Amino acid sequence: MSFEPVIGLEVHAQLLTETKIFCGCSTAFGAPPNSQVCPVCLGLPGALPVLNERAVEHAVRTAVALECTVHRASIFARKNYFYPDLPKGYQISQYEEPLATDGHVEYFDDGAARRVRIMRVHMEEDAGKSIHDGFPDSGGKTYLDFNRSGVPLAEIVTQPDLRAPSEAARFFQRLRRILLAAGVNDGNMEEGSLRCDANVSVRPRGAEALGVKVEIKNLNSFRFLERALDYEVGRQSALLERGGTVVQETRLWDVAGGRTVSMRSKEEAHDYRYFPDPDLPPLVLDSDWVASVREGLPELPEARKQRLMADHGLPERDAALLADDPDLSSFFEAAAAAAGNARAAANWIMGAVAHRMKTLGVGIAAAKVTPASLGALIRLVDGGTISNSVARDVFEKMAATGRPPEAIVEAEGLSQIGDAEELGAAVRKALSENPAAVGKYRTGKTGALGFLVGQVMRATRGQANPRVVNELLKEALETGEE
């Protein structure tokens, strides 16, 4: 029997604030353990939470970026459960009346339109961190660091609209780009700023009813998400094929073992005994303020992609690659304007520029090549001053030194040779030294012309004008004047 996976994600995005959601403690990563704590985030008796306005603003930005309906009023609740890194014995979250609901993310994936519905976006505080290894007595003790306790989170819950592990990973990548573009999250998955839980079930292909759902907790990379879902879909499918029953539970991804392992039986909402937090009044938002947050939202990746396609005539794949990075997109548009050739600018940026950035491990802002200098390089090629092969060498010198292309071309005498008399000797030499290629061309194998052009280009260090070389070679081959 063939089974179909049904997948939904619960994404936890740390909101970009300098202080925690209910106190003034720092949210900076990497501080010494338990150095960023106070009575509020330690849950000490009598300590009262005070809501961070900046966290609210970023949560609303998240919601409007995901096309959600932002509710005028939402309520904070206490989610009660015992865990060592939750010192109060409950987590402040939102439950019955969340910040926002009914959103969606629309995008194109390899030319196919995708739409993933967002069930809800709500605010909550993060828990601390349990450390199970790295100490001499880790075999018998767990160490606790409460620096993360109280860090503000936006939880983004999707509908079960994803149908493959690879699709879930690509959607998570798309969501990360949206959050980065909206300026609400730093996207640093290694530091735990962005992570997700995945809910997955399988059902016979073509069936309507959902299977038993299993949750996989705390996945902090796209690769781990895809691998964990691949394993879990296979595990559930094999279990059902043997006549077994899938148990609703929470599982963890064992990176070393390449498998999911059971963590605990899955709790239902009533197990958490939610009730409104008596220390926090309802969060009431002014509609004009929400509108101003919406209007202040920057251009998001999908809208930018559509604009690049419309304004510059780029194919969808190229526009998508450029639109995913706002700095790269801005660099492209400036270079395209300087060059007067958007297609060439896109090709250079996704080719030589991207390779240089990857080699050096830097972003476009740190590149020595400016949009103006790249545009000037493209104009030199389009104007026939230098060939494409010479332009590649000039680019490497630009990237290494920051010098403008005109100065490099002039100093090194790299201008393209277009004079027929000057090229004649190189053409005659290529013909006389390659009689086999000449013979092939004259018997109808016109592909041999490309080989002969290459010989001339090599002899002139790539400075010959390819169009002129083609014309001279064809004339000589067809007239027999070698």
Structural class: alpha+beta
* Percentage of residues assigned to helices: 40-55%
Topology, number of strands = 16
Estimate nothing, just give the exact number of structural domains. 3
Beta-strand percentage? 15-25%
Coarse morphology: elongated
Mean pLDDT: 91
Task: Pick out the low-confidence regions.
Answer: none
Distance N terminus to C terminus? 71 Å
Rg computed from alpha carbons, rounded to a whole number of angstroms? 30 Å
* Order of strands, widest sheet: 2-6-7-10-1-11-12-13-14
What does the model show?
- There is one protein chain.
- This protein has 482 residues and is α+β, with helices and mostly antiparallel strands.
- The chain folds into three domains: 3-293, no CATH class; 299-412, no CATH class; 420-479, Arc Repressor Mutant, subunit A (Orthogonal Bundle).
- The chain is 40% helix and 20% strand.
- It contains 15 helices and 16 strands.
- The chain has helices spanning 53-65, 165-182, 222-241, 287-295, 301-312, 316-323, 326-339, 342-360, 371-382, 388-401, 405-412, 420-433, 435-442, 448-459, 466-479, and strands at 3-14, 69-70, 73-74, 76-80, 90-94, 100-109, 112-125, 129-131, 143-145, 152-158, 194-204, 214-219, 249-254, 259-265, 275-276, 283-284.
- The strands form four sheets. A nine-stranded mixed sheet has the order 2-6-7-10-1-11-12-13-14.
- Helix 5 (301-312) crosses helix 6 (316-323) and helix 12 (420-433) crosses helix 15.
- The termini are far apart.
